[in-house]
Design a protein that fits this description.
- The protein is mainly beta.
- 9% of the residues lie in helices and 41% in strands.
- The protein is built from 2 helices and 19 strands.
- A 5-stranded mixed sheet has the order 8-19-18-13-14, with no helix packed on it. A 5-stranded antiparallel sheet has the order 9-10-11-17-15, with no helix packed on it.
- Strand 4 (39-48) and strand 5 form a beta hairpin.
- The longest helix is centred in the N-terminal third of the chain and has 15 residues, at 12-26.
- The radius of gyration is 27 Å and the shape is flat.
- The relative contact order is 0.18.
- The model is unreliable at 1-26 and 79-87 (pLDDT under 50).
């Protein structure tokens, strides 16, 4: 039998090395020890037919939002919430959860459907709490937050702009000066449009305008707020 060579070196050791290396790749483990954000968990990631599966609890521990609806499991990655908010580095949270951007504390108490809004059309009404978390008297409008920056977002990326204050109720006055530490409850309404008729909002977006006031103790690069209506604290 003729010996396979490459120049003056036999090829058998090289072929054997490739076979062994290939065997190591194919022989993948059936489970992995799972570490999330540097912390070991008590669960494992399993391998089935070459696919690795991670427990849902591990994903939520890593900041992924999970929501089940009938036969659908919806996962939202941190910083990539649906509803027109992709790419917005906002302070995010759930209904009834106080959110703080270093200056304002914002808490959405409820978003409910209303049969008749201020213009005698169906819509949605939001009730929220605002608190001045700084050491000086401030108005929302003076810090870059205006009524035009408030909207409801839907799962198909459609947004519904803020309509007006609810009549005969606490006004969402962006020009109102709020003393340090003071809070007030506000209500506002969104008029349903043909594009949003029959749909349920998934998020409240309270984005900041371009004239964010400098010299204030903002604690995040983008002080906008994003509230997921599918969870409640």
């Amino acid at each position: 039998m003729r010996r396979l060579t490459s120049g003056h070196r036999p090829l058998w050791p090289s072929i054997l090395t490739c076979v062994l290396a290939g065997g190591l790749v194919v022989a993948a483990p059936s489970a992995y020890r799972l570490v999330v954000n540097g912390k070991a968990t008590t669960t494992q990631a399993i391998v089935v037919n070459g696919q690795t599966y991670v427990p849902l609890a591990a994903l939520t521990a890593a900041g992924v939002q999970a929501k089940t609806d009938a036969t659908t499991l919806t996962l939202t990655l941190p910083g990539n919430a649906a509803g027109g908010s992709n790419g917005v580095a906002a302070v995010s949270g759930c209904v009834n959860q106080p959110l703080f951007n270093g200056v304002w504390r914002f808490r959405v108490l409820s978003v409910t459907p209303v049969a008749t809004t201020f213009v005698n059309r169906p819509g949605w009404e939001i009730t929220a709490e605002l608190r001045n978390g700084s050491s000086q008297a401030l108005a929302l409008g003076d810090t870059g937050f205006l009524s035009s920056n408030l909207s409801l977002a839907f799962s198909d990326a459609v947004t519904l702009p803020f309509g007006d204050w609810s009549p005969n109720r606490a006004q969402w006055d962006h020009n109102k000066t709020i003393p340090p530490g003071a809070a007030y409850t506000v209500k506002g309404q969104f008029e349903v449009t043909p594009e949003t008729a029959g749909k349920t909002p998934t998020k409240v977006l309270y984005l900041r305008a371009g004239n964010v006031r400098s010299g204030l103790p903002w604690s995040v690069p983008d002080p906008a707020f994003r509230v997921d209506l599918g969870c409640r604290k």
